[in-house]
UniProtKB/TrEMBL annotation:
PANTHER family per UniProt: L-ALA--D-GLU ENDOPEPTIDASE, PEPTIDASE-RELATED
Organism: Marihabitans asiaticum
Domain ARB-07466-like C-terminal residues, every copy: 210-302
Name under which the protein is recorded: Peptidase M23-like protein
InterPro entries per the UniProt record, alphabetical: ARB_07466-like_C, Cell_wall_metabolism_enzyme, Dup_hybrid_motif, M23ase_b-sheet_dom
Organism placement in taxonomy: Bacteria, Bacillati, Actinomycetota, Actinomycetes, Micrococcales
Signal sequence region: 1-26
Length: 470
Protein backbone atom coordinates (compact mmCIF):
# COMPACT_ATOMS: atom_id res chain seq x y z
CA UNK A 1 0.00 0.00 0.00
CA UNK A 2 1.28 3.45 -0.89
CA UNK A 3 2.13 5.53 2.16
CA UNK A 4 1.38 9.18 1.65
CA UNK A 5 1.21 11.90 4.28
CA UNK A 6 -0.61 15.16 3.65
CA UNK A 7 1.46 18.20 4.42
CA UNK A 8 0.38 21.81 5.00
CA UNK A 9 2.41 23.57 2.33
CA UNK A 10 3.40 27.17 1.75
CA UNK A 11 0.80 28.43 -0.67
CA UNK A 12 3.47 29.36 -3.20
CA UNK A 13 3.70 25.60 -3.77
CA UNK A 14 -0.05 25.50 -4.26
CA UNK A 15 -0.11 27.62 -7.38
CA UNK A 16 0.58 30.91 -5.65
CA UNK A 17 -3.08 31.43 -4.80
CA UNK A 18 -2.27 32.43 -1.26
CA UNK A 19 0.62 34.64 -0.32
CA UNK A 20 2.20 32.13 2.02
CA UNK A 21 1.03 29.99 4.82
CA UNK A 22 4.05 31.17 6.82
CA UNK A 23 5.25 34.58 7.73
CA UNK A 24 7.80 35.69 5.17
CA UNK A 25 10.06 37.91 7.18
CA UNK A 26 8.63 36.47 10.37
CA UNK A 27 10.26 35.18 13.49
CA UNK A 28 9.32 32.65 16.09
CA UNK A 29 8.99 34.03 19.58
CA UNK A 30 11.61 32.50 21.86
CA UNK A 31 9.40 32.75 24.94
CA UNK A 32 5.96 31.64 23.81
CA UNK A 33 6.35 28.13 25.23
CA UNK A 34 6.27 26.73 21.72
CA UNK A 35 9.89 25.83 21.06
CA UNK A 36 10.13 22.05 21.35
CA UNK A 37 12.50 20.92 24.07
CA UNK A 38 12.02 17.19 23.67
CA UNK A 39 14.81 14.83 22.72
CA UNK A 40 15.69 14.32 19.11
CA UNK A 41 14.04 11.59 17.13
CA UNK A 42 15.49 8.73 15.12
CA UNK A 43 14.08 7.75 11.74
CA UNK A 44 13.82 4.22 10.40
CA UNK A 45 15.10 4.82 6.87
CA UNK A 46 13.83 1.40 5.79
CA UNK A 47 10.25 2.42 6.58
CA UNK A 48 9.90 5.87 5.04
CA UNK A 49 6.57 7.00 3.60
CA UNK A 50 6.31 7.14 -0.17
CA UNK A 51 5.68 10.86 -0.02
CA UNK A 52 5.12 13.71 2.41
CA UNK A 53 3.47 16.60 0.63
CA UNK A 54 5.71 17.42 -2.35
CA UNK A 55 8.67 15.47 -0.96
CA UNK A 56 9.39 11.86 -1.92
CA UNK A 57 12.12 9.32 -2.64
CA UNK A 58 15.62 10.71 -2.20
CA UNK A 59 14.27 13.90 -0.65
CA UNK A 60 12.74 11.97 2.25
CA UNK A 61 15.86 9.84 2.62
CA UNK A 62 17.96 13.00 2.77
CA UNK A 63 15.66 14.50 5.40
CA UNK A 64 15.91 11.29 7.42
CA UNK A 65 19.70 11.36 7.22
CA UNK A 66 19.71 14.97 8.42
CA UNK A 67 17.49 14.06 11.35
CA UNK A 68 19.55 11.02 12.28
CA UNK A 69 22.79 13.00 12.16
CA UNK A 70 21.33 15.33 14.75
CA UNK A 71 20.22 12.43 16.91
CA UNK A 72 23.72 10.92 16.76
CA UNK A 73 25.06 14.22 18.16
CA UNK A 74 22.48 14.15 20.96
CA UNK A 75 20.62 17.21 19.68
CA UNK A 76 17.00 18.11 20.23
CA UNK A 77 14.08 17.78 17.88
CA UNK A 78 14.16 21.57 17.56
CA UNK A 79 17.70 21.46 16.19
CA UNK A 80 16.73 18.65 13.81
CA UNK A 81 13.79 20.68 12.53
CA UNK A 82 15.96 23.77 11.98
CA UNK A 83 18.36 21.65 9.93
CA UNK A 84 15.55 20.21 7.80
CA UNK A 85 14.11 23.72 7.30
CA UNK A 86 17.51 24.98 6.19
CA UNK A 87 17.98 22.16 3.70
CA UNK A 88 14.51 22.79 2.28
CA UNK A 89 15.42 26.45 1.83
CA UNK A 90 18.80 25.71 0.27
CA UNK A 91 18.14 22.70 -1.96
CA UNK A 92 14.52 21.52 -1.54
CA UNK A 93 16.15 18.43 0.02
CA UNK A 94 17.95 17.55 -3.21
CA UNK A 95 21.67 16.76 -2.97
CA UNK A 96 22.74 19.31 -5.56
CA UNK A 97 26.01 18.93 -7.45
CA UNK A 98 25.96 22.58 -8.45
CA UNK A 99 25.95 26.03 -6.92
CA UNK A 100 24.57 29.35 -8.10
CA UNK A 101 25.80 32.74 -9.26
CA UNK A 102 26.48 33.88 -5.70
CA UNK A 103 28.20 30.66 -4.68
CA UNK A 104 29.35 28.73 -7.75
CA UNK A 105 31.29 26.34 -5.50
CA UNK A 106 28.28 25.61 -3.26
CA UNK A 107 27.28 21.96 -3.12
CA UNK A 108 24.96 19.52 -1.44
CA UNK A 109 21.82 19.73 0.69
CA UNK A 110 23.02 22.82 2.57
CA UNK A 111 24.82 24.43 -0.39
CA UNK A 112 28.02 24.56 1.62
CA UNK A 113 30.99 26.40 0.12
CA UNK A 114 34.43 24.96 -0.59
CA UNK A 115 36.06 27.05 2.15
CA UNK A 116 35.26 26.06 5.71
CA UNK A 117 32.82 23.24 5.02
CA UNK A 118 35.11 20.31 4.31
CA UNK A 119 35.92 18.38 1.20
CA UNK A 120 33.62 17.97 -1.77
CA UNK A 121 32.95 14.43 -0.56
CA UNK A 122 31.91 15.77 2.87
CA UNK A 123 29.61 18.37 1.36
CA UNK A 124 27.96 15.85 -0.96
CA UNK A 125 27.46 13.31 1.83
CA UNK A 126 24.10 14.11 3.51
CA UNK A 127 25.17 12.81 6.93
CA UNK A 128 28.52 14.63 6.89
CA UNK A 129 26.99 17.85 5.56
CA UNK A 130 24.29 17.75 8.23
CA UNK A 131 26.86 17.07 10.95
CA UNK A 132 28.87 20.10 9.84
CA UNK A 133 25.71 22.21 9.81
CA UNK A 134 24.90 21.15 13.37
CA UNK A 135 28.44 21.89 14.53
CA UNK A 136 28.17 25.40 13.11
CA UNK A 137 24.71 25.84 14.66
CA UNK A 138 26.08 24.96 18.09
CA UNK A 139 28.61 27.77 17.67
CA UNK A 140 25.81 30.33 17.37
CA UNK A 141 25.33 31.91 20.78
CA UNK A 142 21.79 31.46 22.03
CA UNK A 143 20.63 29.63 18.89
CA UNK A 144 17.87 27.86 20.84
CA UNK A 145 16.26 31.22 21.65
CA UNK A 146 16.51 32.68 18.15
CA UNK A 147 13.77 32.46 15.60
CA UNK A 148 14.54 29.38 13.49
CA UNK A 149 15.09 31.49 10.38
CA UNK A 150 17.67 33.63 12.20
CA UNK A 151 19.41 30.60 13.67
CA UNK A 152 19.74 29.18 10.15
CA UNK A 153 20.86 32.55 8.79
CA UNK A 154 23.66 32.82 11.36
CA UNK A 155 25.03 29.53 10.02
CA UNK A 156 24.35 29.99 6.31
CA UNK A 157 24.83 33.78 5.93
CA UNK A 158 21.98 33.95 3.43
CA UNK A 159 21.46 37.36 1.84
CA UNK A 160 17.90 37.33 3.25
CA UNK A 161 17.78 36.41 6.97
CA UNK A 162 14.05 35.71 6.66
CA UNK A 163 14.42 33.28 3.75
CA UNK A 164 13.96 30.14 5.82
CA UNK A 165 10.82 31.23 7.72
CA UNK A 166 8.55 30.17 4.86
CA UNK A 167 9.79 26.57 5.26
CA UNK A 168 9.44 26.24 9.04
CA UNK A 169 5.99 24.67 9.14
CA UNK A 170 6.85 22.26 6.33
CA UNK A 171 9.92 21.18 8.29
CA UNK A 172 7.88 20.67 11.45
CA UNK A 173 5.35 18.50 9.70
CA UNK A 174 7.97 16.64 7.72
CA UNK A 175 9.87 15.71 10.88
CA UNK A 176 6.62 14.55 12.49
CA UNK A 177 5.80 12.45 9.43
CA UNK A 178 9.24 10.85 9.44
CA UNK A 179 8.78 9.96 13.09
CA UNK A 180 5.61 8.14 12.09
CA UNK A 181 3.13 10.60 13.60
CA UNK A 182 -0.41 10.01 12.37
CA UNK A 183 -0.92 13.60 11.27
CA UNK A 184 -4.21 12.92 9.55
CA UNK A 185 -5.76 11.60 12.79
CA UNK A 186 -4.49 14.21 15.19
CA UNK A 187 -7.41 16.61 15.34
CA UNK A 188 -10.69 16.10 17.12
CA UNK A 189 -13.92 17.58 15.82
CA UNK A 190 -15.85 16.92 19.03
CA UNK A 191 -16.82 20.43 20.08
CA UNK A 192 -19.30 21.64 22.69
CA UNK A 193 -21.13 24.03 20.37
CA UNK A 194 -23.06 25.75 23.16
CA UNK A 195 -19.86 26.62 25.01
CA UNK A 196 -18.23 27.78 21.78
CA UNK A 197 -21.14 30.08 20.94
CA UNK A 198 -20.95 31.62 24.40
CA UNK A 199 -17.17 31.88 24.47
CA UNK A 200 -16.96 33.70 21.14
CA UNK A 201 -20.29 35.55 21.41
CA UNK A 202 -21.40 34.07 18.09
CA UNK A 203 -25.13 34.57 18.57
CA UNK A 204 -27.65 32.37 16.77
CA UNK A 205 -25.28 30.41 14.56
CA UNK A 206 -25.88 26.88 13.31
CA UNK A 207 -24.06 23.92 14.83
CA UNK A 208 -21.84 23.51 11.77
CA UNK A 209 -20.58 27.09 12.22
CA UNK A 210 -20.02 26.75 15.95
CA UNK A 211 -18.21 23.47 15.42
CA UNK A 212 -15.81 25.03 12.91
CA UNK A 213 -15.12 27.97 15.23
CA UNK A 214 -14.54 25.62 18.14
CA UNK A 215 -12.04 23.60 16.11
CA UNK A 216 -10.20 26.45 14.38
CA UNK A 217 -10.12 29.50 16.66
CA UNK A 218 -8.16 27.86 19.52
CA UNK A 219 -5.70 26.17 17.16
CA UNK A 220 -4.96 29.36 15.23
CA UNK A 221 -5.05 31.54 18.36
CA UNK A 222 -7.85 33.73 17.02
CA UNK A 223 -9.75 35.46 19.81
CA UNK A 224 -12.36 37.41 17.85
CA UNK A 225 -14.83 35.69 15.53
CA UNK A 226 -17.89 37.31 13.96
CA UNK A 227 -21.00 35.15 13.88
CA UNK A 228 -24.72 35.86 13.54
CA UNK A 229 -25.58 39.33 12.20
CA UNK A 230 -29.33 39.63 11.52
CA UNK A 231 -29.11 42.84 9.49
CA UNK A 232 -26.21 41.95 7.23
CA UNK A 233 -27.05 42.70 3.55
CA UNK A 234 -25.80 39.28 2.48
CA UNK A 235 -27.67 36.14 3.60
CA UNK A 236 -24.75 34.21 5.09
CA UNK A 237 -24.49 35.81 8.54
CA UNK A 238 -28.27 36.19 9.09
CA UNK A 239 -28.66 32.47 8.33
CA UNK A 240 -26.11 31.55 11.01
CA UNK A 241 -23.95 29.79 8.43
CA UNK A 242 -20.97 32.17 8.36
CA UNK A 243 -18.02 33.11 10.54
CA UNK A 244 -15.46 35.89 10.25
CA UNK A 245 -12.09 34.95 11.77
CA UNK A 246 -10.47 38.30 12.57
CA UNK A 247 -6.71 38.83 12.16
CA UNK A 248 -4.57 41.99 12.56
CA UNK A 249 -3.76 44.16 9.56
CA UNK A 250 -0.10 43.24 9.83
CA UNK A 251 2.26 40.90 8.03
CA UNK A 252 1.87 38.53 10.97
CA UNK A 253 -1.91 38.73 10.74
CA UNK A 254 -1.83 38.06 7.00
CA UNK A 255 0.36 35.02 7.57
CA UNK A 256 -2.06 33.67 10.15
CA UNK A 257 -4.99 34.28 7.78
CA UNK A 258 -3.12 32.53 4.97
CA UNK A 259 -2.53 29.49 7.16
CA UNK A 260 -6.16 29.39 8.28
CA UNK A 261 -7.48 29.78 4.74
CA UNK A 262 -5.23 26.99 3.55
CA UNK A 263 -6.40 24.72 6.36
CA UNK A 264 -10.03 25.45 5.48
CA UNK A 265 -9.49 24.61 1.82
CA UNK A 266 -7.64 21.41 2.63
CA UNK A 267 -10.38 20.27 5.04
CA UNK A 268 -13.44 21.84 3.42
CA UNK A 269 -15.41 18.60 3.21
CA UNK A 270 -14.94 17.69 6.86
CA UNK A 271 -15.74 21.23 7.99
CA UNK A 272 -18.63 21.71 5.59
CA UNK A 273 -17.15 24.78 3.89
CA UNK A 274 -19.26 26.20 1.08
CA UNK A 275 -16.92 29.05 0.14
CA UNK A 276 -14.26 31.38 1.56
CA UNK A 277 -13.39 35.07 1.16
CA UNK A 278 -9.87 36.28 1.97
CA UNK A 279 -7.51 38.96 0.66
CA UNK A 280 -9.91 40.16 -2.06
CA UNK A 281 -10.33 36.59 -3.35
CA UNK A 282 -13.08 34.02 -3.22
CA UNK A 283 -12.63 30.26 -3.01
CA UNK A 284 -15.08 27.53 -4.01
CA UNK A 285 -14.26 23.79 -3.93
CA UNK A 286 -14.96 23.36 -7.62
CA UNK A 287 -12.87 26.27 -8.94
CA UNK A 288 -10.29 27.28 -6.33
CA UNK A 289 -9.27 30.89 -5.71
CA UNK A 290 -10.45 33.74 -7.95
CA UNK A 291 -9.89 37.50 -7.61
CA UNK A 292 -12.75 39.75 -6.47
CA UNK A 293 -13.59 43.35 -7.24
CA UNK A 294 -12.08 46.05 -5.04
CA UNK A 295 -14.73 46.97 -2.49
CA UNK A 296 -12.71 49.82 -0.99
CA UNK A 297 -11.83 49.15 2.64
CA UNK A 298 -9.66 46.42 4.17
CA UNK A 299 -12.71 44.95 5.89
CA UNK A 300 -14.84 44.95 2.72
CA UNK A 301 -11.93 43.33 0.87
CA UNK A 302 -11.59 40.68 3.60
CA UNK A 303 -8.04 41.71 4.47
CA UNK A 304 -8.62 41.74 8.23
CA UNK A 305 -10.61 38.53 8.42
CA UNK A 306 -11.10 35.17 6.76
CA UNK A 307 -14.80 34.78 5.93
CA UNK A 308 -16.13 31.22 5.82
CA UNK A 309 -19.65 30.27 4.73
CA UNK A 310 -20.73 26.75 5.58
CA UNK A 311 -23.12 24.16 4.22
CA UNK A 312 -25.99 23.02 6.40
CA UNK A 313 -23.99 20.03 7.65
CA UNK A 314 -20.43 18.73 7.89
CA UNK A 315 -18.48 15.58 8.55
CA UNK A 316 -17.95 14.20 12.03
CA UNK A 317 -14.54 12.51 11.72
CA UNK A 318 -11.08 13.58 12.73
CA UNK A 319 -9.25 16.59 11.34
CA UNK A 320 -5.54 17.29 10.94
CA UNK A 321 -4.31 19.19 13.96
CA UNK A 322 -2.81 22.60 13.39
CA UNK A 323 0.63 22.36 14.98
CA UNK A 324 0.82 24.06 18.35
CA UNK A 325 3.69 26.08 16.93
CA UNK A 326 2.34 26.64 13.44
CA UNK A 327 1.64 30.34 13.91
CA UNK A 328 4.47 31.15 16.27
CA UNK A 329 6.31 32.72 13.34
CA UNK A 330 3.29 34.91 12.76
CA UNK A 331 2.57 35.92 16.34
CA UNK A 332 5.91 37.42 17.22
CA UNK A 333 8.16 40.25 16.24
CA UNK A 334 10.03 40.14 12.98
CA UNK A 335 13.53 40.61 14.34
CA UNK A 336 15.80 38.67 16.61
CA UNK A 337 18.30 40.40 18.89
CA UNK A 338 20.98 42.06 16.79
CA UNK A 339 18.79 42.41 13.68
CA UNK A 340 17.10 45.44 12.15
CA UNK A 341 14.16 45.34 9.79
CA UNK A 342 12.68 47.70 7.26
CA UNK A 343 9.66 49.41 8.81
CA UNK A 344 7.28 48.51 5.98
CA UNK A 345 7.18 46.34 2.88
CA UNK A 346 7.39 47.91 -0.54
CA UNK A 347 9.83 49.35 -3.08
CA UNK A 348 12.01 52.36 -2.33
CA UNK A 349 10.24 54.97 -4.44
CA UNK A 350 12.47 57.89 -3.45
CA UNK A 351 15.96 57.45 -1.96
CA UNK A 352 17.88 59.56 0.55
CA UNK A 353 19.48 62.74 -0.82
CA UNK A 354 18.68 65.70 -3.05
CA UNK A 355 15.56 65.39 -5.19
CA UNK A 356 12.80 67.36 -6.89
CA UNK A 357 10.04 67.54 -4.28
CA UNK A 358 6.91 65.81 -5.68
CA UNK A 359 4.40 68.33 -4.35
CA UNK A 360 6.42 71.53 -3.86
CA UNK A 361 8.05 71.39 -7.31
CA UNK A 362 11.61 72.40 -6.45
CA UNK A 363 14.84 70.63 -5.47
CA UNK A 364 15.50 70.03 -1.78
CA UNK A 365 17.13 67.53 0.52
CA UNK A 366 15.15 64.37 1.10
CA UNK A 367 16.09 63.51 4.67
CA UNK A 368 14.81 59.94 4.50
CA UNK A 369 13.49 57.35 2.10
CA UNK A 370 10.00 56.77 0.77
CA UNK A 371 8.67 53.21 0.86
CA UNK A 372 5.86 52.54 -1.59
CA UNK A 373 3.59 50.63 0.76
CA UNK A 374 -0.21 50.72 0.23
CA UNK A 375 -2.69 52.59 2.39
CA UNK A 376 -3.15 50.98 5.83
CA UNK A 377 -0.10 48.73 5.44
CA UNK A 378 1.73 47.99 8.66
CA UNK A 379 4.55 50.27 9.86
CA UNK A 380 6.82 48.53 12.35
CA UNK A 381 9.69 49.69 14.52
CA UNK A 382 12.97 48.58 12.90
CA UNK A 383 14.69 48.27 16.28
CA UNK A 384 13.77 48.46 19.93
CA UNK A 385 13.21 51.92 21.36
CA UNK A 386 10.84 54.34 23.09
CA UNK A 387 8.22 56.51 21.39
CA UNK A 388 9.01 60.18 22.09
CA UNK A 389 6.48 61.82 19.75
CA UNK A 390 3.22 60.76 18.14
CA UNK A 391 0.99 63.42 16.63
CA UNK A 392 0.56 66.09 13.92
CA UNK A 393 3.72 67.61 12.44
CA UNK A 394 3.46 70.01 9.49
CA UNK A 395 4.47 68.51 6.16
CA UNK A 396 4.79 65.07 7.75
CA UNK A 397 1.04 65.04 8.28
CA UNK A 398 1.23 62.91 11.39
CA UNK A 399 4.58 61.77 12.72
CA UNK A 400 5.93 59.14 15.09
CA UNK A 401 9.47 59.48 16.43
CA UNK A 402 11.25 56.65 18.26
CA UNK A 403 14.38 57.08 20.38
CA UNK A 404 16.72 54.06 20.06
CA UNK A 405 19.38 55.38 22.41
CA UNK A 406 22.95 56.58 21.79
CA UNK A 407 21.64 59.62 19.93
CA UNK A 408 19.73 57.63 17.29
CA UNK A 409 16.09 58.36 16.48
CA UNK A 410 13.78 57.24 13.69
CA UNK A 411 10.84 59.11 12.18
CA UNK A 412 7.76 57.83 10.35
CA UNK A 413 5.64 60.28 8.37
CA UNK A 414 2.41 60.82 6.42
CA UNK A 415 0.15 58.68 8.62
CA UNK A 416 -3.37 59.83 9.30
CA UNK A 417 -4.33 60.54 12.88
CA UNK A 418 -6.23 57.29 13.21
CA UNK A 419 -3.21 55.42 11.86
CA UNK A 420 -1.06 56.17 14.92
CA UNK A 421 -1.03 52.97 16.97
CA UNK A 422 1.78 53.83 19.39
CA UNK A 423 1.72 56.53 22.05
CA UNK A 424 4.41 58.67 23.69
CA UNK A 425 6.23 56.63 26.30
CA UNK A 426 5.54 53.25 24.69
CA UNK A 427 8.48 50.86 24.71
CA UNK A 428 8.55 49.12 21.31
CA UNK A 429 10.44 46.11 20.03
CA UNK A 430 11.93 45.45 16.62
CA UNK A 431 9.13 44.43 14.27
CA UNK A 432 6.30 45.68 16.50
CA UNK A 433 3.62 47.55 14.57
CA UNK A 434 3.40 51.21 15.55
CA UNK A 435 1.29 52.76 12.77
CA UNK A 436 -0.49 52.35 9.45
CA UNK A 437 0.61 53.86 6.14
CA UNK A 438 -1.29 56.96 5.03
CA UNK A 439 -1.00 60.03 2.79
CA UNK A 440 -1.31 62.97 5.17
CA UNK A 441 0.66 66.21 4.88
CA UNK A 442 2.84 67.00 1.87
CA UNK A 443 2.18 63.69 0.14
CA UNK A 444 1.06 62.72 -3.34
CA UNK A 445 -0.22 59.26 -2.37
CA UNK A 446 -0.01 56.55 0.27
CA UNK A 447 3.56 55.72 1.28
CA UNK A 448 5.85 55.73 4.31
CA UNK A 449 8.44 58.46 4.74
CA UNK A 450 11.14 56.97 6.95
CA UNK A 451 14.06 58.87 8.51
CA UNK A 452 17.02 57.91 10.67
CA UNK A 453 18.82 60.64 12.63
CA UNK A 454 22.03 60.41 14.63
CA UNK A 455 22.44 63.38 16.99
CA UNK A 456 19.61 64.93 14.95
CA UNK A 457 21.59 64.67 11.69
CA UNK A 458 19.79 62.69 8.95
CA UNK A 459 21.60 59.64 7.61
CA UNK A 460 20.66 57.16 4.89
CA UNK A 461 18.18 54.72 6.47
CA UNK A 462 19.23 51.90 4.15
CA UNK A 463 22.80 52.16 5.42
CA UNK A 464 21.59 52.12 9.04
CA UNK A 465 19.32 49.11 8.47
CA UNK A 466 22.16 47.28 6.79
CA UNK A 467 24.43 47.58 9.83
CA UNK A 468 22.03 45.28 11.63
CA UNK A 469 22.75 46.03 15.27
CA UNK A 470 19.53 46.49 17.18
Amino acid sequence: MSKKVALGLPAVLLGGLLASSFLVGGAESPNDGCIPTEDGIVVNIANLPDSVGPYSGEQLKNAALIVNAGKKMGLSRHAQTIAVMTAIGESTLNNLERGDAVGPDSRGLFQQRATGWGSLEDRMNPSSAATNFYKALLEVEGWEDLAPTFAAHRVQSNADPYHYAQHWRSAQQLVSALEGAQITEAGSTNVDTAKTIKAYNLGSVRDVTARAVGVLAPQFKISTVGGHRPNDPYPDHPSGLAADFMVPLTDAGTAKGDALAQYLTENHEELGVKYLLWQQRSWYPDRGWKPMENRGSPTANHQDHVHATFQGSAGTGALPAASACMDSEADSVFAAPGERVMPSKGPITSPFGMRMHPTLGYARMHAGIDIGAPCDAAISAPSKGRVVYAGPMGGYGHLIEVDHGQGTTTRYGHMYGNGLLARVGDEVQAGQQIAKVGSDGESSGCHLHFEVRVNDKPIDPQTWIGKGKA
